[in-house]
Automatic annotation (TrEMBL):
Belongs to the FAIM1 family. Its main location: cytoplasm. The keyword Cytoplasm applies. It comes from Pitta sordida (Hooded pitta). GO terms for biological process: apoptotic process; negative regulation of extrinsic apoptotic signaling pathway via death domain receptors. Keywords: Apoptosis, Cytoplasm. PANTHER family: FAS APOPTOTIC INHIBITORY MOLECULE 1, FAS APOPTOTIC INHIBITORY MOLECULE FAIM. This is Fas apoptotic inhibitory molecule 1. It is found in: Cytoplasm. It holds the Pfam family FAIM1. InterPro entries: FAIM1, FAIM1_dom_sf.
Length: 182
């Protein structure tokens, strides 16, 4: 196993199916480019004569499109930027804050990461898309699912304020779980 001597960039990307680690090796003398996602080699190119350019690959169960841009800054210095779904990582994560809710909870000594995709109402738990049952209730909707034999419910109620919109709350075993900030 060769050491990652040309490692130039590492990113952590939170997607619905989990937090993924992207590592990039760039050999500026050999022209080598290697992309790892969660420790698994996705792309390997040897002897690239063009040292600038881009590498595109997918991340996670949702096959989210990711691109690493390689740009020359000056002389032999390079800048590496990551794009997710065509947006800079910063823009992508800002947009994700608006379109998803994430909760971290511990049940029976195991940690679970629950993500709600607000646009589709899909619920993910530790990388798995959950079977859910939705119902209308007096003050909004409830989305029911089970995690490790614990009944869970995401309540969606109107905030009554147009700017705030709908408030989503995760309830597990009649206990409200605070939202996580990723």
């Amino acid at each position: 196993l060769e050491k990652m001597t040309d490692l130039v960039a590492v990113w952590e990307v939170a997607l619905s199916d989990g937090v993924h680690k992207i590592e990039f090796e760039h050999g500026t003398t050999s022209g080598k480019r290697v992309v790892y996602v969660d420790g698994k080699e996705e792309i390997r190119r040897e002897w690239m004569f063009k040292l600038v350019g881009k590498e595109t690959f997918t991340v996670g169960a949702t096959k989210t499109k990711a691109t690493i841009n390689i740009d020359a800054v000056s002389g032999f210095a390079y800048e590496y930027t990551l794009e997710i779904n065509g947006k800079s990582l910063k823009k992508y994560l800002e947009n994700r804050l608006k379109t998803t809710n994430t909760w971290i909870l511990s049940l029976g000594g195991t940690d679970y990461r629950v993500v709600l995709e607000k646009d589709t109402m899909d619920v993910w738990c530790n990388g798995q898309k959950m079977e859910t049952a939705g119902e209308f209730v007096e003050d909004g909707t409830e989305t029911h699912f089970t995690v490790a034999d614990h009944s869970c419910c995401i309540k969606a109620v109107s905030s009554g304020k147009r700017k705030e919109g709908i408030i989503h709350t995760l309830i597990v075993n009649d206990r409200e779980i605070p939202e996580a900030v990723e």
